[in-house]
Specification:
The chain is of the alpha/beta class and 348 residues long. Strand 4, helix 15 and strand 5 form a beta-alpha-beta unit. The chain folds into three domains: 94 residues, Arc Repressor Mutant, subunit A (Orthogonal Bundle), CATH 1.10.10; 54 residues, no CATH class; 182 residues, Rossmann fold (3-Layer(aba) Sandwich), CATH 3.40.50. Helix 3 packs across helix 6 and helix 5 packs across helix 6.
Amino acid sequence: MTAPAIGKEHEQQNTPPAQVQMLQIISGFWISRAVYVIGKLGIPDLLTSGPKTAEELASATKTHAPSLFRILRALVSVGVLSSAEGGRFAQTQLSETLVTDAPGTLRWFAVSELGQEHYPAWGNLMHSVKTGEIAFDNFFGVDIWKYFQQNPEDAAVFNNSMSNVTAAANEAITSLYDFSQFGTIVDVGGGHGGLITSILKQNPELKGVLFDAAEVIEGARPKIEAAGLADRLETVSGDFFKSVPEGGDAYIMKWIIHDWDDEKSNTILRNIRKRMQPNGKLILVDSVVPESDEPHFSKFIDLNMLVMTGGKERTEKEFAQLLAAAGFKLIRVIPTDLPTSIIEAEPV
């Protein structure tokens, strides 16, 4: 018997039956919801000081100890938590990612994606599949942006989740792209300024403009001041469907275009095209969907866009077509180690 055959036989013996694999897929959201519970309650924060019993954790979170125990026990079984002596529960590398002040914490991302506005919208996914309409809008009666205006606490959690989850992406972007070639960069829809502040810190000669909705900009200003960039980073509020600040050598948008369908994306891109310098650059940071059948996180982010905003993730060919329709030429796509890429274009 040859070595390859032995390997193949071993692989077959260790592969769960198809029914078991499908049961694991079907029940995957049970794990996700349990993660939401401990993230929402701040359990990982409480475990930073050492292992604790379910009773101790329930007392601190004002929850029902026997029920909380069942959540914790289940999460131990999948490695999110670990067990310790005396019936206590302890931190793991996975649960450490949910600690509030951990670098790039995923706590608020877990709360937003698995509990608040995203969870019921995903429950309405079939509506999108049947009608092509946005599941979120159908469930809540308003689009997500209006919802956030009406629910500022949820909006704050979402903005925090985006600010924290993008820290690694910002590092990848600034390490792979040379921003020193520009004088002024306009960050369109830049949220609380995580990306533009990262760029300016690494390029002390650069100036920047952070552009977003008024309520978002209001929350960004304290962070800009804390970063010591108030003298180099101007904040401007407005609506990118109407106009954007003029005069930038480069315009950057991270995870913005994927929120919108082609028609609305074209409006944003044309507004930028009108305002940018003739020799300027457009830099998009978004997922690029592979043309192949390989597993890629972008294919599921794409479903999130279907549910939440009516937007989409695009292939490189689709980006080229979208950019051409707005008066740009795709120059190159720079992959990162994350499920996102840097897409560079210039006006034609």
